[in-house]
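Minutes, project check-in
Item: structure for the 243-residue chain
Input as provided by the requester:
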Amino acid sequence: MALPKYDQIAGDIRGRIVRGELKAGDTLPSERELTERWSVARATVVRALDVLRQEGLIETRQGTGSIVRERALLARTAGERYRTAVQTGQVYTAGEYAEIVGAEMLPAPEEVATALGIAVGDQVARRHRVTFEGEVPTATSWSWFTAEVAGAAPRLLQRERVREGTTRYVEMETGRRPHTGRDWWTARLATEEELELLRLEGPAAVSEARHVAYDAEGRPLAYEVGISPGGRWTRTDEYAMND
């Protein structure tokens, strides 16, 4: 089923912001331009812009129109990061970068083994990174891969940035294209390690996102847990509630 037009418009603009094509302070096309470009009523464009305002991506100023917010708070899913990597060759947008603080093989704990479809204690590759905007840490994440995937993609075990993103890199090295993703979100208090990594004063709330990427045969490619400071981002979902 095709998305509603307002959602298509919002998604197009959101994608351009995520990829860095529209930067902080850039002015969006006018409502009239968007109405003509998408062949829709003005009310549809207004609704699309409302969605982006609710997500904290844009703001509207009298006499200027809608502009991309300074340090827009992006809640990017793993799928959005993967699409950015495919389209631009880099997983991070302008102003973002990651420090790799760990890359090693270790026995899989139960949670990781379940996600990757392997036995508890099997060897897995784990990468740990902290993502920054300028000097500010915005997230920390851990990614796990089976020994089979790590053997085919040796850069996973190097403490160096994979600029095209680990999921895209794994696809390029193994030929296994991500087909389906499954994400879970929750909110909780930060651990002592997370407080230190994200430079937070405790107690502090964080959001936790867990992600599994599957190939076309339904085999897990990667498992990731990402942690972001609570209040740094918002995400809006709209969906049908009728049968």
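Outcome recorded: Helices lie at 5-18, 31-38, 42-54, 78-88, 110-116, 147-152, 166-174, 192-197.
No further action items on this chain.
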